[in-house]
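Changelog-adjacent note: as of this version, every example in the card shows the full chain rather than a window. The one below runs 121 residues end to end.
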Amino acid sequence: MRIVAFLLILCLLLTYVGCSTLSVSKDMPLFLVVLGDKNGYINKTGKIVIKPQFDFAGEFSEGLAPVVVGYKWGYMDKTEQIVIEPQFFNACSFSAGLALVQVLRNQIMEWGYIDKTGHYV
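Full-length structure tokens:
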């Protein structure tokens, strides 16, 4: 149980790094911004590039960012498209093509890895 709690806290901390540089393209860094109670992204001049529309947003990794919509985590790409529908209790950034996610199954919280299409591996 302590390991699960540790992993959850670690995942949240890693996902919450809001000042990290993100990139829509190789020459366009983005920065997480919170306006009101919504998260979006601005460029280095302060222009809003992805409007604040998410309950929470994490940093981009391998072209996808974990986002919260209506209490569920999913993933969006750099064009604001939701590519993996919000369905997870928790979600971490992608690394080596996989992301750690948490779901509730049969009243038990389970962790697993998904690929960039949202399929479990």
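Structural remarks: Residues 4-24 have pLDDT under 50 and may be disordered.
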